[in-house]
Amino acid sequence: MTTVAPVRVATARRAGSTARAIGRRVLTSVLVLWGAVTLAFLALHLIPGNTVDAVAGGTTQVTPQLRAQITAEYSLDRPLVVQYLQYLGKLVRGDLGDSYALRMPVAKAIGQQLGSTMILLVTATVFAILVSVVIALLTAHRRRWIRGLFSGLEVTGVAVPAFWLGILLLTVFSFQLHWFPAIGSAGIAGLVLPALTLSAAPIGMLTQVLRQGLERVLDEPFVVTARSRGISEAAVRLRHVLRHAVLPVITLAGWLAGTMIGGAVVVEQVFSRQGLGRLTVNAVGHKDMPLVLGIVLIAALFYVLVNIAIDVAYRLIDPRLRSEDTTR
Amino acid sequence: MSVSRRSGFAVATAASLTLVLAACGSSGSGATGSAGSPVSGGTLTYAINTDADCLDPHQSPADVAGFFARPILDSLVALDPGGKILPWLAKSWTVSADGRAYTFNLRDDVTFSDGEAFDAAAVKANFDHVVNPKTQSKLAAGTIPTYTGARVIDPHTVEIDLSQPSSAFLPAVATAYLGIEAPSTLAGDPKALCGKIVGTGPFVSADGYTPQKGISYTRRNDYKWPAGTAKHQGPAYLDRLDIQVVTENSSRLGALTSGQVDAIASVPPVNVAQLKANPGFQIQTAQAPGGNYSYYPNTQSGPFADIRVRQAFRSGIDWDTIVSKLYFGVFQPAKNPLAPSTVDYDKTVEPSYAYDPAKANQLLDQAGWTGRDAQGYRTKDGVRLTLVHPFLQAYVREQRDVLADQLQAAAKQLGIEIKNQNVDYGTYLKLLATPEGHDLGDFSWQRASPDALRTLFGSANIATPQSGFGTNQARYDNPAVDKYLADALTTGDPRQQADLYAKAQQQITADAAVFPVYVFNYVVGAAKKVQGITFEPQAFPTFYDTWLAQQ
Amino acid sequence: MTVIDRIPVTTARRTWRPGLVLSFAFLIVVVLAALVPHLFTHVDPDAADPAATLLGPGGGHPLGTDQNGRDLFARIVHGAAPSLLIGLGASALGLAAGTVLGVLAAQSGRIGDELVSRLLDVLLSIPGLLLVILVVAVLGAGTGTSVVGLAVIVAPANARLVRGEILRIRGSAFVEAAHALGWPRWQVVLRHVVPNAVGPVLVLATISVGGTISAGASLSFLGLGPQPPTAEWGAMLAASRDYFAVAWWPAIFPGLALTATVLAITVTGGYLQQRLEGRAGR
């Protein structure tokens, strides 16, 4: 099986009882979240420059009174450890703090952008999976030139930089042909080009993995048996083969999620969509500590949840894993 | 490099102010102004290139907050394109003999969109809100540094007191940064105002402003107190106004040409000719007064401490060709510390900014930079003539990064190495706040007054590690110029003022304390049907008089 | 930003593969351009000419000029070096760091393993691009920073793989034999376990070169990569997009060079992967 490395393959040593497994899972998840926030906190403090200037922003000269006010409001005169503990303390109570630049609660700032990003991610992911499955089903063990053609397209899809593809699509289909809107986050029409751009590389990747899986399964004896019973080729592929070939794709889900999130930053920029990606770039640029930490936390939470979902999916699809659990 | 997306607010003196409005639609297809009489109705969608971060102009550091807030907020007075102060929410005003007290006589028929009445107490609440430390005003409070307090004399009369006379006070009051917000909204947490503000203006925004997305306004039908500068009375023509933030230049243009939006801010110069040639569109420009987009040499330290090196840099680079080729004639080359549309602009200094490479090389030789290293750069005592130029990539607009590349190549011809350093904001401030941190800075500062000279060259505005950003990037410290500028601000005599400002421009030019690059134009591209976009003095468009022609 | 760690190239074992030959030939050209650009052009890639901006292909400029009047062909040739440097540098650094972390995890007992594994979890949980943006914010934008930032993304995957391989090999017969002979633990690890574990990781690193080049270009697109006037393909594309409506060439040619290079590395890397796995008897 082809593995993609940043994936948390759910074969970690598991404790006997499910309850202990869940407990351990929750504990490590919290540890990961804490680690991510701590790492980001340290990194943000290593960024050169004075936080008061970052809060004041802009190119106005800051009066001493304003400096004092800002320093007091954000406790910037406290030692780093104290600021860190204060942040964690608020975090535990569910308070992400206020963004320096946007002057609004971080939860609200993220909330305003999260919807747009999630719609893009979900659309692109669903689109990528559908297209990959269809192409893989149609091309597995087919004539050489068909496979060759699609293989070429898939590898190209992976190789083309997303931002360049986006600019090309935008220029041709929006600026020239006027088929799709040039800007904006609203409506389904505005989602087509960004989703296409974002899913190009994943489609190339998923299709290849899926086809490899399909071709392996197609050679298995049970497929030959099914065919011999007079079941049509389409039915064989859909009913029997696909189920088995899907496992490696689930392995890829974690990678897929990471790729999509990273890609969203660039795609949102190219297509002038509102969203977390652009928010992130701006927030780091402004040294907007509470906002960056909030975004890191959301992203890490997303990662943790996706990986739990992968584990669950594994157990549902592959019963062997369940029995493995009980025997160990 | 450019920091000016958050700077350059406009404060005008009472003298004249030139606003160049040029409707450049292609001829023969019903050009602007001849499309019949205004009609009500319709939605205008406008795409702007910069984000405001915080909508409340009282506290936001971004000058563009004034643009976003203007449809909602009215001011006490208005500034007309000729620089005259006209009534708005104040019917009239008087100034005390010592110039330190302004008494405003307010309209009595004005209400805020939330139903509150507009009165003297509301004015006092607004001024106090701007200067309240809790508001953390980063721009607005700086425009009224002499404000000491307000007194409610009767419900419709308010007195504003200043610590010293200032000809810049009324023009500051006319800007959206001191726009009047509903007092009830000022009482709470100032942060809430970053998303939503309430005023007396011709439009209201129910949902407020969303960063990276923009803002939608609807017309207020009972509006009947427009500014003295307005071209009509009664409610605005547009039913609805949608402003979208689109930072990508090509997307903004594409959205306009594909009909997705009706008008866009900041048309990329490279596309202006293209748009002009298209019969469906028009270009409107407004030249911004104040400081140009300029490079500033660090006059305190490094190679530029030697005036001959500054003079050589000024005359050794073909600024004209670089600017005209890069901006296709949309922005004109600048030849003065000030923009030509600024009051008291002194034309006589222009010849000093001519291109003369022979003189430049001679000056560099005289300054001792006679050696040459392997890469062809000049050296003195074995040290290469290198200029460090820190800039902020995130704030780059109008292809200033391309310009920086061309400048670098042009300087190489002179044997000067420019190091363009893209740094983060904190590092940028640090480098500019110390004499040793940089050799070149660049930014633009639009301001409808020659007092921009004080902002740009007054010794009080040299950055220190405590001040954050300093607008005197040249670190120029000349007591004579400081005195000219201080006297010009308080003198009541326009002729004396003109003379003082001319002297300042001449001295700054003689000291080669600035390398002017181009004069900033606000360039709006719009569909033909869009009529009556007007510009405020700082060259931001306004939409009260805007209407959509039937097609 | 996509950093792909392993590309499954499904082209089955065949004798004549025009794609592979083409890819390999193209890679040689790109590497030559990176090492000796003067083989291809003697034009200065940074020589701006305000009088010759955005000239179309043909004439004195085979691929036209960019918005600064610089020769596009010269810039694409000289752009090979930074792009390859970022791809190879980040992959190599990621490989080294990943190996060290992986060995540490596998060899330092339960607590050490747990610590390193959780650290890897943390690094993986922050989206790669956000991690790089943070690294760039701390270190300042530039070619070197791009290398370090991208290596941070690549390293955890490598570390995971190394750790897994070591655990697998440690259980194998020959290592147990070495222990039985009384060899010191670290000697066994360094002499026998690590060299055997590095093989598959090396393949992964090779293939990740294409991904890191692509990711590096995305970084440039956001203005966080190599700084002007460095001729780097991603930065050239980013700068060209404002001129696309009037000049297509600065937006097309660097993109083709970038895509073709990543494609060639992917195809060649996939072939190497197959050969290595084939030899390993899989």
What oligomeric state is this?
Answer: heterotrimer
- Mean pLDDT of chain C, to the nearest integer, reads 83
**Coarse morphology of chain A:** flat
Residue fraction in strands of chain A: under 5%
Helical residue percent of chain C?
A: 55-70%
Quick synopsis:
The complex is a heterotrimer of chains A (328), B (551) and C (282). With 328 residues, chain A is mostly helical. Chain A has 14 helices and no strands.
Topology:
The complex is a heterotrimer of chains A (328), B (551) and C (282).
Chain A: H1 18-46, H2 51-56, H3 64-73, H4 80-92, H5 106-139, H6 144-159, H7 162-176, H8 189-218, H9 221-228, H10 233-245, H11 247-270, H12 276-285, H13 289-317, H14 319-327
Chain B: E1 22-23, E2 43-48, H1 64-69, E3 77-79, E4 85-87, E5 90-95, E6 101-106, H2 120-131, H3 140-143, E7 147-154, E8 157-162, H4 169-173, H5 183-186, E9 203-204, E10 209-210, E11 214-219, E12 240-245, H6 249-257, E13 263-264, H7 269-277, E14 281-287, E15 290-297, H8 307-316, H9 319-327, H10 357-366, E16 371-372, E17 378-380, E18 383-384, E19 386-391, H11 400-414, E20 417-422, H12 425-433, E21 440-446, H13 452-457, H14 479-490, H15 494-510, E22 515-518, E23 521-527, E24 530-531, E25 534-535, E26 541-542, E27 547-548
Parallel strand pairs in B: 2-12, 2-13, 19-20
Antiparallel strand pairs in B: 1-14, 3-4, 5-6, 6-8, 7-8, 9-11, 10-11, 11-12, 13-23, 14-23, 15-21, 15-22, 16-17, 17-18, 24-27, 25-26
Helix pairs in contact in B: 8-10, 9-11, 14-15
Chain C: H1 18-35, H2 72-107, H3 109-125, H4 128-139, H5 143-170, H6 173-180, H7 185-221, H8 233-240, H9 249-279
Helix pairs in contact in C: 1-2, 1-9, 2-3, 2-5, 2-7, 3-5, 4-5, 5-7, 7-8, 7-9, 8-9
